[in-house]
Amino acid sequence: MSFDIETTELAELCEQVIDCPHSTPVWMDTGVIVLRSSNIRNGRLDLSNPSYTDEYHYQERSRRAKVQAGDLVITREAPMGEVCLIPGDLKCCLGQRMVMLRPDRERCDGKYLLYALQSNRVQNEIRSHEGTGSTVSNLRIPVLKSLPIPTPGLANQKVIAHILGTLDDKIELNRKTNETLEAIAKALFKSWFVDFDPVRAKAEGRPTGLPAEISDLFPDSFEDSELGEIPSGWNVAELGDISTISGGKQLESVELKSNGRFPVYGANGTMGFHDLATHNSFVIVFGRVGAYCGSINWEYGGAWVNNNASSVIPLRYNELVLQWMLEADYSNYRTGSAQPFIPNGALACSPVLMPTDALASVFCDLLLPIRLKQKKNQSAALSLVEIRDALLPKLISGEIRIPDAERMLEEVGV
Question: Which domain holds residue 293?
């Protein structure tokens, strides 16, 4: 049941709607960030792969208006309708196919507008203007300005934004915690198995800084190998010697579920869930086809691995094999001119440096709690995403009243 929230055209909720300059930015290696379509996904700004221009061209591209904190940026194509909110510490300008929205704070809460633009109701309106055939889908400015936005009173907008933002904050906290855990795992691996810090310390007569029972597991000298200098007594193995590698199994899309016992993995990560699995225990999922060729995912409780990926099942030392794969560069293993592809045979030949069994066991014992915590955080984040995505359209449309939504969050401990 809906409570008949009125709609307002987007232009009436904004002080300014500014289209991007219709020219290719002048690219620089450093400078001022230029926002591109690839930087906006799922309502968030992602600057992990930033692009830059210089100060002069930043000023040129900002002549109509400078992007500032609290503005929204929405993509016009490739894809269209992705939107994000600009944080307070970012100096940037618009790349191509981007539009800046500056909310009128007398009528519209910016964070509420962010969620309203992501709602199914508004996204369906945007998609109704997609091109067909050879026409490129493009969100034209007149269409953008006329988008009907559900518009409760300003006070209720702020409450709705707070409810949904609380969920997003928890999701983001889980993501950042997992980044920290990954950095810890990476630093330990690099110190022990790339830089050989404990071995070098012992060779030079310095303390390793490790507990004696761990320090004693490292040698105090090096020997030559096909990988160059490695610690004495360690050996170079091939991935295929220490694990079982096999191709995934095709799964028809109609069999995918929104939830289920086992996640279904393709080359680019999870695709959904299923009640059956191709592997019922620890499995490393290696993306072998397309743009995500060489991607790495893993599950402790089993998964369905589809035919765009390969499964890698270590014979021993799960966490050590996983970390080697996460650190490896598989770009030289790619074949195919039209679509990148990494054959299982090539993957099996990739080298892995193996320490003594005792040291490998210690490393895995240290990494296991980190990996389990990451999976727990991922699972919690998925649950929060489901709650947020369920609440979003109902709050925006008025189908759920604010007090009811607040009670729902209390029940799940948010």
Answer: 180-356
Mean pLDDT, the chain, rounded, equals 91
Are residues 14 and 406 in contact, defined by beta-carbon separation less than 8 angstroms? no
Last residue of a domain, one of 98, 132, 151: 151
Residue with tokens 């019922």: 280
Give residue-wise pLDDT tens across range 362-397. Answer: 999 999 999 999 999 998 998 898 889 889 888 888
| Most confidently modeled range among 137-146, 226-235, 288-297 | 226-235
Q: Per this entry, what is the length of the chain?
A: 414
* Burial of 58 from C-beta contacts in 10 A (0-12 / 13-18 / 19+): buried
| Pick from 207, 117, 124: nearest CA to 157 | 117
The residues near 78 (Cβ < 8 Å, ≥ 6 apart) are: 37, 97, 136
CA separation for the pair 34, 54 (Å, rounded): 10
Based on the domain organization, do 237 and 305 belong to the same domain?
A: yes
Alpha helices in 75-151, H assignment, sequence order = 110-118, 120-127, 141-145
Domain co-membership, 132 together with 264: no
